Amino acid sequence: MSIAEIFESLEYGPAPESASPVTRWLDEHDRTTRLYVGGEWRDPAGGEYFDSTNPATAKPLARISQAGREDVDAAVAAAGAALPAWQALGGHGRARYLYALARQVQKHSRLFAVLESMDNGKPIRESRDIDIPLVARHFYHHAGWSQLMETDAELRDAAPVGVIGQIIPWNFPLLMLSWKIAPALAMGNTVVLKPAEFTSLTAILFAEVCDEIGLPPGVVNLITGDGRTGALMVEHPDVDKIAFTGSTEVGRIIRVATAGSGKKLSLELGGKSPFLVFEDADLDSVVEGVVDAIWFNQGQVCCAGSRILAQEGISGRLTEKLRARMETLRVGDPLDKSVDIGAIVAPVQLQKIQELVQQGVDEGATMWQPSWSCPQEGCFFPPTLFTDVSPSSTIAQVEIFGPVVVAMTFRTPAEAVELANNTQYGLASSVWTENINLALDIAPKIKAGTVWVNCTNVFDAASGFGGYRESGYGREGGREGLWEYVKPRWAAEARKDAAKKEKTKAPKGDDARPKLGGLPPIDRTAKMYIGGKQARPDGGNSLAVHGAGGRLIGEVGLGNRKDVRNAVEAAHKAAGWAKQTGHNRAQILFYLAENLAARTDEFTRRVAALTGDEAGAAREVEATIRRLYTYAAWADKWDGDVHHTPHRMVTLAMKEAIGVVAVACPDEAPLLGFVSLVAPLIAMGNTVVAIPSERWPLAATDFYQVLDTSDVPGGVVNIVTGKREELAQTLAAHDDVDSMWYFGGAEGSEMVERLSAGNMKRTWVDYGRPRDWLSPEQGEGAEFLREGTHVKNIWVPYGE
Ligand code: NAI
Ligand code: MG
Question: Considering 126, 197, 268, 614, which one is annotated as catalytic?
Fold first, then answer.
């Protein structure tokens, strides 16, 4: 072809990146990889191997070790053995290693990028310019957090969790590895990591880098294998936390498998992220945005903008522009520097995409693909746009995880929000409009962990990333991501045998009956409190409440499923509470404290009658008043952050209410336990369904009179009395409950975590470990506020 002809046709010539460094590396390893355990390379004990393939050529690259039980045990043991020295090294010592990892990733960046593209099928442009630089960035950033761990005002009260099991997917193999390993090591943990079976190779190279920099043996252990290996890690008793990224299906299995084990858990799962285009958006930018949203990494991105929601007036024009742009996209050899879309990771994934696309056609949507065809060899799929899609159809609801986008329309901003949230997921979203007021009005209304304004798929180590709802929980990156890898220092130091300590004072004998100042005991059946009104139990039954000395001192309603459902509904109706200002909520919490203080005597007598401990009761009421002050104080001070991401953007980390939170209160501290859990939640804008202490519920039921007189809107706090386990079971399984806190013992904790897997609600449970409610360190503060909020990161670009 002559130069003149090329000018005419504007055809691209081939621009291949050389595969030879990778070929050399693979050959040096005899095309077989081993397991990295305790700083040594070992063969899998079971002698089992599987192939890793280049999806662009369908040719095998290497044989990968399948780690079995013996190997997993050895890796976990090595991580455990490495823990004391790694922690003793201190933040600065660990920072030096993390810095060395960052430097070394940069030094080997070409090899990493080519290896990643060959193993995964992603275009070299992306692995070279996005994945690998972000990996280095992640290690640099967390070298910094490691350095600060002992001095940062918030972090210095935190302790490492221990041995972390990390399981990652195939879509961003090395990037996901860095998101997992960097914060874990920075906070003084050691890890056992399992890459996905389709893409183990860059993890092997990373383990070699760990070796090269002299990372102490056992700090990072790398085991390869499929889901069976992952399951062994999940079940392992000596693993203290599981961090998982992958499908919602496996996330759910892991939630159930770890229920009650006391393992910390973070899950980054699937998504069906909305991409909202308002009619004043710059449509040419929008088109490039769609390219980045759904054709980046072949659409195999958990936060892919896979649902375009366009305002009616411009949707036709947008479709036309998109089709024209799609015609110019280039699908082909991932190692070609001018290819936009590479290969789908594996034949099974290709087949899944093909089946879902066929289903979309069968369900009546209009499918459009460019006129050109994909390479026939290897796993390729063309960019695909569906229009005329109904919001409830399969392709509008199911994560396709391929280069397939569905488009729908809306009329008003309110309708846009409704459609955006019409999904079980909540990972990310993009909002396109030239009107900053509109963008910042919409962003908080979308239930997703990330909102990109006039941009999409932008990531950085300084910003948190993670989901709402069935997209999982926990954040990765930024200050908010660190909390996944630490626990409160007091909890770490609490002696193991403390769990055996009796949690509540045994009822004393009759002669210990408190002196009630001559007043007759208060004797009536306390009602439940739902939607701001006293409510009789649906079943009409009641439960006797015995106080000190076993004396009957009252009755409460025996709540059932129907009562729970009513309470959840009332809590949802009160969602406007989240929109009140922090100042308003603070005023109401102060007012609660004031009104409780005015009734100190009455409440002290009540608590004393229940517990038989008069002095303790006085302390408890006093502490409760203080606690209300604490959360009145926090209501307008639990600020978000503005993250320093290295783009021309402000990244606003906003703390948001979770929604409807169910709370099962501890038996002990009948008033303080209740208020310690309910107050932080309502301070943050959540609405609550609380089950008070089953044994001594009367202090909580008395408290609704205080709620009534303190201007707390109806439905913000709902109280259902009865059998805690039964009620908690209904709440844990309830699809309209967004989170559940459970403080009632080991068995109930297991039950709550297990049942939460239904809608993947967040949970916070006590596993039967005691907490001193009177102590400000254990009974209040940041831990409660973090558990009661989501962090949403809103990215807003600036500049012309
Ligand atoms: P997956 O969820 O099965 O795999 C993710 C990781 O979990 C892999 O390392 C795998 O070996 C491991 N694993 C599998 N079963 C396990 C178990 N029972 N216990 C512990 N670990 C286990 O995802 P897969 O099969 O690779 O892809 C299936 C679908 O999942 C995709 O089509 C896509 O829709 C979705 N997916 C979503 C991702 C995301 O980032 N949101 C990432 C990967 C897949
Ligand atoms: Mg592969």
Answer: 268
